[in-house]
Write a structure and sequence with these properties.
The chain has twelve helices and nine strands. By secondary structure, it is α+β, with helices and mostly antiparallel strands. Helix 7 (108-123) packs across helix 9 and helix 7 packs antiparallel against helix 11 (241-252). A hairpin with a 2-residue loop joins strand 5 and strand 6. Mean pLDDT is 76; it is low at 254-262.
């Protein structure tokens, strides 16, 4: 259905609806990123697209050619510039109830075995770093360690983190109630993000892992005996085992995504 013409350009009702939808999407994206460094880059990309369209409309060949070359690669530039934000958004999407429907984990027995192991390790003044998958994407980290493919149980976890064990130095990765590997190497979170200087490499590794994958990381400090949980790029200390149990149950049995997209961008800015 033709509405009007602008020169040789015919504008229909579908074109108007299309433009309004695109404008709405860009507006929402700007609102989400407003106040962050990402918003400045986003505005710059929008200006490039607008100038390119204006140059093509008024047949400004030289200017149009320059900006058309830029718009040809704007998708790639967008992915490169916003890679941390895109990764975090995709991780949040992966943590929704719909996504967890495809990655449902029967975690009751695993939780009990892990908690009992943490209790025993704390009594022995031993440290631990345990990664529990909440979806997938851990293959590259599993490959850095020693493959075990063993059922989760208290005795095995205690044996692994015994200081005399050759597997104690690193992380244990648990996926689908199976200990996939031990002595795994995890990515470290930037040192400046951890304000408490008493927290060392084990805590940086746990926090760094939670920033990159959909997983819950339990950190047991060998020096202080404190038990911490890292998830979604945040870390908190559990005051007792019951609190640890509640945190694990709440996470594995249907907790919703609690962060807005705007909070994600703000966190990425603070970490940059």
């Amino acid at each position: 259905m033709e509405l009007f013409k602008i020169g040789f350009i015919t504008v229909s009702l579908i074109d108007v609806i299309d433009i309004l939808i695109v404008c709405y999407i860009f507006y929402k994206l700007y609102i989400v990123m407003r106040g962050t460094i990402a918003s400045q880059i986003f505005v710059g990309l929008i200006l490039i697209i607008i100038i390119s369209l204006v140059a093509q409309t008024f047949s400004m060949k030289s200017l149009g050619w320059i900006f058309s070359r830029l718009t040809d690669i704007w998708v790639i530039a967008f992915i490169i510039l916003f890679q941390p934000e895109i990764r975090r958004i995709l991780l949040v999407i992966g943590r929704t109830r719909i996504a967890r429907f495809f990655f449902k984990i029967s975690s009751g027995e695993t939780i009990n075995e892990v908690i009992e192991a943490v209790k025993e390790l704390k009594q022995r003044n031993l440290g631990a770093l345990i990664v529990i998958s909440r979806g997938g994407g851990l293959t590259s980290f599993i490959e850095t360690g020693e493959t075990l493919q063993a059922k989760v149980n208290k005795e095995l976890l205690i044996s692994i983190f015994n200081t005399r064990s050759p597997l104690h130095d690193g992380a244990v990765i648990i996926q689908n109630n199976i200990i996939e590997a031990a002595r795994c190497i995890l990515p470290l979170s930037p040192a400046e993000k951890i304000m408490n200087r008493k927290l060392g490499t084990r805590h940086r590794a746990g926090l760094g892992m939670s920033e990159q994958v959909n997983a819950l990381i339990i950190i047991l400090s060998e020096e202080t005996g404190d038990i911490s949980i890292a998830q979604d790029g945040n870390m908190k200390t559990c005051n007792d085992y019951e609190e640890l149990r509640k945190e694990l149950i709440g996470i594995f049995e249907g907790s919703d995504v609690k962060k807005s997209m705007k909070e994600i961008f703000e966190e990425m800015e603070e970490g940059s």
